Amino acid sequence: MKSFVDRGLTRHLREVGQYFPIISLTGPRQAGKTTLLREMYPDYKYVSFENPKIDAAFKEDPEAFLNAYNQYVIFDEAQNVPDLFSYLQGMVDDQRTPSRFILSGSQNFLLRKNITQSLAGRVVPLTLFPLDQSELTNSNRLSEYRNDAIFRGGYPGLEIASIPPGVFYGAYLQTYIERDVQGLIDSTNLTTFKIFLKVCASFSGQLMNYSSISKAVGVSVPTVKSWLSILEQSYLIFTLVPYFKNFKKRLVKSPKLYFYDTGLLCYLLDIESPEMLGKHVASGAIFENYVVSEVHKMNVHRGKENKFYFYRDSTKLEVDLVEDRAFKAKLWEIKSALEVDTRQVNNLALVARNFDQLIQKGIIYGGGISEYREGIQVLAWNDLKAMLD
After folding, report:
1. CA 60, 65, 66, 71 torsion: positive or negative?
2. Helix H segments across 3-81?
3. What confidence tens digit (pLDDT) does each residue in 252-298 have?
4. What 8-state DSSP symbol labels residue 79?
5. Distance of CA 375 to the CA centre of its chain
6. Are 204 and 265 in contact (CB under 8 A)?
7. Cα separations in angstroms, 337 against 146, 241, 311, 349, 375
8. What is the 3-state composition of the chain as percent helix, strand, coil, each rounded to the nearest 5?
9. Which helix (H) or strand (E) holds 76?
10. At a CB cut-off of 8 Å and minimum separation 6, what does 182 contact?
């Protein structure tokens, strides 16, 4: 089995790279950004600003440095040198060669900030997440056991090196806090921030409740919102917003919280094995998180713009995913059970009454057979790519 896993983003990256002089690739730490770029662009010069000598050379004489690296260069950890972006602006304005420069970095908030200030209109921003289900399937790495796949998550380093998840995620979080979080919050709050991460994990798949998180962690609501922003910008969590177009009923307005990687989520919940996951009180919510995050990652990696929401009204009528496309919507129920329950079918029918446009219905469940039942698409847990086909 080869060590490099073919990434779904490759095709989209090559396509959009034809139109912009600069490509920016962000994503969570250890998602495989550098590996992908060096595999796709083997003839490009590679410059990492984590190297003290490289960093010092640029700061000592930026113009001489960029005379040597003036075309077809990958600048890794570019956020470490904010002045670089102003120089690149002038260079690409003079010569807009497609894919002339590629910027990548693990501190995504700083990279995006510098791009917004200096390179707007000159750069195409892309995101690489941990391996999605389609990538794992295509490389024969997706476990045939559902709870094992959810427990392991999708970080390339864990998969390729066969590192035990507990070891990998423990080291991952330590690195994340020491290198990405430290400096963004007061150092005296780092221990509290770790508690905050675990509390967020307990809210996975639930409506965002700032007050409840605030009380559980022991920090103010503004601090909770600030720390949630850090987690979002570093691609550890994301939110799903409610669908409320053209409805007369009062709908909930709070988003739902999800983690991009369920391996990390399980680690934060102190789940130590797939067997423990199967018995955990939050196993249903974790399965929902798995489905929503995998669909989101595949959507981004393919360069698609499918829009997903959830539905819930004041009567507590709800559906887990609403896929909104032109002139139609698809409602998806997500259940970890090994069999499809008629109650899920009935619930979809009730929610469908509130939609004006053409409706399709689907159920994603914990079993292993995909089929159509009475006009409803039933998808196995390991067949999520069919949602985007």
Report:
1. negative
2. 9-16, 33-40, 52-60, 62-68
3. 789 999 999 999 999 999 999 999 999 999 999 999 999 999 999 99
4. G
5. 31
6. yes
7. 11, 25, 21, 20, 20
8. 45, 20, 35
9. strand 73-76
10. 190
Tokens 């490289």 identify what position? 54
* Residues 299 and 306: beta-carbon distance below 8 Å: yes
Q: How confident is the model over 83-100, as a mean pLDDT? A: 94
Residues 6+ apart with CB under 8 A from 370: 377, 378, 379, 380, 383, 386
Instruction: Tell me which DSSP letter residue 166 carries.
Output: H
3-state SS assignment for residue 362: strand
* CA-closest candidate to residue 199, choices 179, 174, 223: 223
Distance CA 347, CA 324 (A): 18
Q: What pTM did the predictor assign?
A: 0.94
Cβ proximity of 290 and 258 under 8 Å: no
Half-sphere exposure of 51 (CA within 13 A, CB side): 9
Length of the chain equals 389
Q: Rounded to an integer, what distance in angstroms lies between the CA atom of residue 208 and that of residue 193?
A: 18
